[in-house]
Amino acid sequence: MPSILITGAGRGIGLALAQQYCEAGWQVIACHRSRSPALSALGERGVSLHSLDVVDDAQIGELTASLAGKPLDVLFNNAGVYGPDADAFGELDAAGLLATLHVNTVAPLLLAQALLPNLLAGSRKVIATLSSRMGSIADNGSGGHYPYRASKAGLNAALKSLAIDLGPRGFTVLVLHPGWVRTDMGGPHGQLSVDESAAGLRRLVDRASQRDNGKFLDVDGHELPW
Ligand code: NDP
User: Ligand 1: which residues within 6 Å by Cβ?
Assistant: First the structure.
């Protein structure tokens, strides 16, 4: 049975991923900062639930200690924040920028580093991370959104290095845009439901091969410009 660890699984796309991988018979480790009733219901169906605020180093340490010696096939970095409402030039502050960078840029990289022994012991060696088309520098034609855009662009740069560094060890590092999805972050007018987005993301993860290592893909598998 393949295994997957998903961050931010309490709601939104992360919850839909946990539900679908559970349905598909995978061993799911669902990490959550807040535990929703829907996630608790998954716990009753055999999904392993772990408290994890991704910016809390001590909690990352507790998670890795609890998983010591256990192989992990897929790390799915889903947790993310849009950042402060005050995100226009002229109203920015260091605290808002740094907090957004911590969750979106720093945490996925540190989690991959912490879970490397587990991933090396797994058979698939996939690190999938939700970035965003808004992190594409080439695609930015409208400006603004400083904390979010900068955090996802920084994430993309870090993951490109990770793909180059871990590729020779058999890894596939995927940088994924989930589409515009109807969640708390995406709002009510998004094009995709969480289930549609999660189904597309699962297809990309499940068919991932080393040829995909270091690619920035949208939910339909099309390559995006960096
Ligand atoms: P939501 O706002 O619906 O959910 C965000 C999830 O991330 C929640 O589970 C939240 O947990 C978790 N999270 C936030 N901060 C932390 C933290 N410090 N530690 C642990 N978990 C945390 O967002 P989406 O489901 O829409 O987004 C998921 C990912 O997809 C994000 O990375 C986002 O940037 C990306 N994305 C989404 C798009 C969309 O249209 N929705 C478009 C492009 C990218 P809690 O419930 O505790 O707050």
Answer: 7-8, 10-14, 33-34, 52-55, 78-81, 103, 130, 132, 177-178, 180-181, 183-186, 190
